[in-house]
């Protein structure tokens, strides 16, 4: 049975200063990106954490170079349709393939249902740019299938990352402070209320991960051209998604009208 989406009340809003002050302890090993690199509007760029580091540092890769590609070595995700483990980097051609790697929070996040709906509606434009969509969420393949079946969303483009490995090596935020939207982020969510209601007409909380630490994960958006990172975005909080026009622009020559 579909679950009515409950939107956060004002009492749940955490101030930016207090929420952003909470950080997961930084890992001891990480790969730094050059400073001063020119980036597209909207990119959040700092460092990529090494695959062995474990916890997220709350920093995302700068665009340009292959450091993000290198960091993803050894990271596998689970196909939603079969549960089979697939090396993430094997999902696109490292020589010239273009990939849009969308990291959702988890399969029970109503804002992520909206994002998944936007991604699905953009697939024609991704195709015209020669870009492959790879959507990943925190949880197990059975949780991913809930979103795929009920949204619906094409399962062949949907993967699960129960241990949050891709999120960790790409330095995406994790923690309680950023899970409760700031007042600015909450305003953005309410500005998309019609879109969210449409995307969540069959919504259910059953897609949320059993391990509640996964609920505290934030997402991000990455565009790769072969091994090169063309675009990087980390969500500052729940519902803070990358502008789709910027994502499409990073894919190459494609109309975003």
Report on this structure.
- This protein has 257 residues and is of the alpha+beta class.
- It has a single domain, classed as 3-Layer(aba) Sandwich (Glutaredoxin), CATH 3.40.30.10.
- The chain has ten helices and nine strands.
- It has helices at 16-19, 67-71, 110-121, 123-128, 141-150, 165-169, 176-179, 183-191, 193-199, 244-251; strands at 30-32, 47-49, 76-79, 85-87, 98-106, 131-138, 158-160, 220-225, 228-234.
- The strands form two sheets. Strands 4-3-7-6-5-8-9 form a seven-stranded mixed beta sheet. Strands 1-2 form a two-stranded antiparallel sheet.
- Strand 6, helix 5 and strand 7 (158-160) form a beta-alpha-beta unit.
């Amino acid at each position: 049975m579909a679950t009515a989406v409950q939107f956060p009340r004002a009492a749940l809003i955490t101030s930016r200063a207090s929420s952003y002050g909470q950080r997961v302890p930084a890992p001891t090993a990480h790969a730094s990106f050059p400073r001063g690199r020119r980036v597209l509007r909207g990119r959040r760029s700092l460092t990529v954490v090494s695959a062995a580091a474990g916890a997220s540092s709350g920093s995302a890769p700068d665009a340009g170079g292959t450091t993000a590609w290198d960091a993803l070595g050894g990271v596998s995700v689970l196909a939603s349709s079969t549960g089979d483990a697939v090396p993430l980097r094997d999902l696109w051609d490292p020589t010239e393939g273009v990939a849009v790697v969308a990291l959702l929070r988890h399969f029970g996040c109503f804002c992520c249902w909206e994002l998944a709906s936007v991604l699905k509606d953009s697939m024609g434009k991704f195709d015209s740019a020669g870009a492959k969509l790879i959507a990943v969420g925190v949880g197990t393949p059975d949780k991913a299938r809930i979103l795929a079946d009920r949204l619906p969303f094409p399962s062949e483009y949907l993967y699960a990352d129960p241990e949050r490995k891709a999120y960790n090596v790409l330095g995406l935020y994790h923690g309680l402070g950023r899970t409760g939207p700031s007042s600015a982020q909450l305003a953005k969510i309410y500005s998309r209320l019609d879109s969210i209601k449409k995307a969540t007409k069959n919504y259910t909380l059953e897609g949320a991960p059993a391990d509640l630490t996964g609920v505290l994960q934030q997402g991000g958006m990455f565009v790769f051209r072969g091994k090169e990172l063309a675009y990087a975005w980390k969500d500052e909080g729940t519902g803070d998604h990358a502008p789709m026009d910027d994502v499409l622009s990073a894919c190459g020559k494609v109309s975003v009208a």
